Batch of 4 targets.
Target 1
Amino acid sequence: MNHAHAKAQEQAQDKARGDRYARGWEKLKEIDGTAGEKVIASLAPVAPEFARLLIEFPFGDVYSRPQLDLRAREIATIAALAALGNAQPQLKVHIEAALNVGCTRDEIVEVFMQMAVYAGFPAALNALFAAREVFAQRDEEEAAA
């Protein structure tokens, strides 16, 4: 491979990465508002490359795909995070995101009830307690506004 071809390939990759980042950042803001920005800002001093990947891959590549709308993606996400049973901070962020993209509180609770059949009651209880915290925080913020 000659130098000019290698340079052109590198520039194309940089542009693609920039497009993924821009697309991911827009999708993250659409889903999470400022919550996503806070997560990225808190990661940047420790692991800036990871913060970049967190925008590019999940949000720039996966969440931007047209096959599922954001409601369906967030339902799948909260079910998966709840089933893990050990991702409470991420679960809370995505419960908030699910509300932001149009899921109702009843739908979120129902997702965790359905998930209990396959992941067990302890994981479902943890998810329901996380939802209770998110709902209460949202109620407080709405009352203060």
Note: The chain is about 85% helix and 0% strand.
Target 2
Amino acid sequence: MFFLFASVRVIRGQNLLALIFVSICVHSWLVESWGTRRLGSQRPLVMNEPDHENQHAPLSYHGAWRIVWLVSLLVIVWLILRALQPVILLFALVFLLAMVLNPIVVWLQKHHVPRFVSVILLMLALVAVTTTIIVFAIPPLARQTQELVRSAPSVWQGIRTRIESVTQNYPAVREALPRTDEMAGKVGAAAGTVGNILLRSTLGLVGGVASFVFAILLLVFVLANPRPLVAAYLALAPDRYRAQAHRTLARLMRQMTAWARGVAINGVITGLSIGVLLWLIGVQPALMFGVFAFLGEFLPNIGAFLVSIPILLVALSLGATKFWLALGVIVLVYQVELNVLVPGVLGKEMRLHPVNILFFTLATATMFGLLGVFLAVPAAALVQIVIDEFYLQPRRPDYAAIDREAAALVEGKK
């Protein structure tokens, strides 16, 4: 009973001392069971008899104890990560940004600009861009967001009218739709929640500015002299895995550079295109939808789907014509991006399955909040590279045969 209670406490992450208690209990049980088994299976020792290990023998005491320690270590690491979530998020974003900006610093170095001066110039440009966005883009975006929140009941009434006209022969469907007054109440509650969040954000402005200044200083230190950090990373890798560790970091840097380039170029083009075209056909707030389209580029494949949902809902509330025009805009813009921009900008660097991206999006958002979404693609790429370098490549699997076997399973063949 005590063992079960301590195990549950460890799983919930409420008591670290319970982990030690679990380890002691497991250790005592292993010692007793292993000692009993050894006493029951003793046999006379013969001099110079080779000690061949039976591959089909049960798990040894030392092997079981290693597993216990590994699980305990993973639990401890998880508890530490949960306790240091803000710090880990800050350092992860800074290191990601350093990977993205390092090629620019190297390019400036090749043009005879000292590295430290290059970093300072880059930081000044970054601060200038951030300040410009805050001053000129945030106020109109906030106004359009407020307008969308205020018009949500009328938007829902328009959507409800369209659905009722289509489902005239299905009264149960019409009755299941929320009423406009109910939707207004929900929107009011959501607006109050957003207001509370904005109030807390305003009250925590000093802390946000301090975090931003700390992040800039940390980024300067990382970019100005990254060699000791990279050397320490390589030194931590065992000698037999040094080559894999080197290739892992090199591939991650290439993929993150390609991903950031794709977000910057494709995001600006896609965001402007969707914003301008929606403004031309009269679907508002076009500016906010353009910003959504830009942010959707942080999530390849699934970003376009997530961006399309609010656009089509608002367009549907304005009528069938607006809906089909908005759908045509979305299809046109994202087809151009998929067939022209993505091959030219990203190339073949990023090959991530949508399921992997969706999993890491939910995982990073759960662990780190909204800002964690920006780490979804880097985390997915890192896991994929590590598995490929340390597990798949040494085994040299026959991918053609594996693909044929997978196709047979999918098609229901034996």
Note: The chain has three domains: 1-35+61-83, 85-225, 227-414.
Target 3
Amino acid sequence: MKILLASLGTAGDVHPFLAIGRHLADCGHDVELLGSPAYASLAAGAGIGFCGVGRASDLEAALGHHYVWHPINGFGVLWRYLARPAMADTFNRIEAVFRAQPCVLLYSPFLMPAARIANEKLGVPAISAYTAPAMIRNHYPPVSIAHWQLPRWMPRALCKRAWELLDRRKMQPLALPAVEAMRHSLGLAPLRQSIFGDWIHAPERGITLFPDWFAPATPDWPAQIRQAGFPLYDGDAGGGLSRATRAFLAGGSAPLVFTAGSAMQQAREFFAAAVSAAKALGERALLMSNAADQVPADLPGTVLHTRYEPYSLLLPAARAFIHHGGIGSSAQALRAGVPQLVVPHAYDQFDNARRLEQLGVARILGGDASASRRLQRQLHALLRASAVGTACALAATRFQGDRTLQTIQQAIEEFA
């Protein structure tokens, strides 16, 4: 069976689809990923087909934008620089494949509106895939809108009004012109729904790429959504850790592992604070960043800078993991059973952080993470909290016998 996967964003947005694609290909399906040309090599490494949509420079422009990590304005950057330019390519490729052979489409909804349009116009069987709970709006606690968490006592009617206000002031003006222009060109009627609250969901089937113990369904979720689990991906795990990292881990106590995310290009102050906090606590530290210019030049012998390492191999050797709250990083840390300090910036990160805190495996550092004393205090408290270690061990057991990929495979095959 031909299966199209469609995802845009950072590596963390694409990795779950690579895990799914590799599993489906191993089961004999013909799998093709539609994504930024920048990720062609990742698809090749996963052993699946690939079609670039948009340009690699679109991703570079988005991730280099000053506001891309702004809690309110960040999504607008991704929409204008990444999602909108890829719409025509996405629709055209889906149409070409669908007219040539039967296929099923699994797509990430927020940055792939053309996939939903193809579903509506052409009748392509489509499943919307939700990498994080924040992608599904709800009116039951906890309700997170950007960096705000609505009070648990707030009536559901007021939560609904908050979402409507966000749509009216921000989301509809941002996305409606491009969506309506493509719909009009294809002879589709004007939308009468909220784009991100209602229309973007595939009407027949949806599946979460996170488990119910991380975020249980609420009564107001779309009825067609099923829950699966975390489809974790370490494409380069077969190559092992780098020689320098292996030597560093063998040379002393378990280090604090810091990352600001694979796509972050604005982390100089964060990594400087990390070095200072680790020194003050008498801890060793490993700083992960693909951008060497984000890391202090003169590191002490107790601190190592490395490019990204396979989380499945690195995190079990960490004393604690300090990260941005991306869903992939969060899930990998849960599987490793390592305490987490989460420093969220934008998107789903705030909601993920709160859910990790509710599970008892993490603390949240809000505000200015570049203040080394605040970072030091939070780390000191995290490392001394025995209850966190107990919660981490419990979370890790939830991954034993995991059948996430088989569940997703079954959902796709049954739908086809």
Note: The first strand starts at residue 2 and ends at 6.
Target 4
Amino acid sequence: MWNVETNETMPPVLASRQEVEQLLRPPTQRQNPERKNPVLTLQILICGLILLCVVAVRTISPPLYETFQAGYRQLRYQGIALSGEEELVKFASAAVRDLSVQAMETMQRLSGENTLTLGYGAGGWSRRAAPEGNSLETLVPGNTLSLPVRGYTVTSDYGWRSDPFTGKADFHTGIDLAVAEGTGIHPAWSGIVQKSAWNASYGNYVQVLHENGLVTRYCHMQYIFVRQGQRVTLDDVLGTVGQTGAATGPHLHFELFCNDVRYDPAKALEAGV
């Protein structure tokens, strides 16, 4: 049998007044006064770390202060879509790690200056001295030194830096003068060839003994044109620029010694320009 459709409608089921009040009542929030806010703790940590880094950089090298200022501004105004307290905690933790890395990198970039650089150790921030046999003092010889090559670009200064092979902190014992491979290398001052040799680090290198305990060393040479014991003058060619040994490209690694201690050769060369 077919069901007979009718237009009859059923009356709506209405909620009671008590049920309506229950539905409209705002939910109560559980209070836990003993619970500490991890977000506030992380914010304080971030602010403290930023302040420490900025003060250190601004004191040692004002130009690098702008780098930290730009990084902080980006961190502050960057739009962040957070779904809850857990995401904020993750973001804050990552920010702390990033700031720590930036601080270490910035300290290493200070190595090119003729000052003691800052290093972070077990006792916190401290002055980082040069390794034994090296000095951060400026040495300007009594006699003017001549440039060993012309038309160069300084690609790495003397002092603390990030090692190009390992990425770790390393003390660079000279300055790197990048110039075309095959360029002639002249002695910075007249003297006697003390060494004409090769090793894994310097590659082909020449060491010249001058007066007053002064010694200059020329490394990563392509070819060597002099021998040990030979007297050389400014007009002689010691060899040519190359990339032998531990080198990332053609350049002259130039070192300056005085009484068996290395010094930054930059000031000595600038005095001769």
Note: The first helix runs from residue 17 to 24.
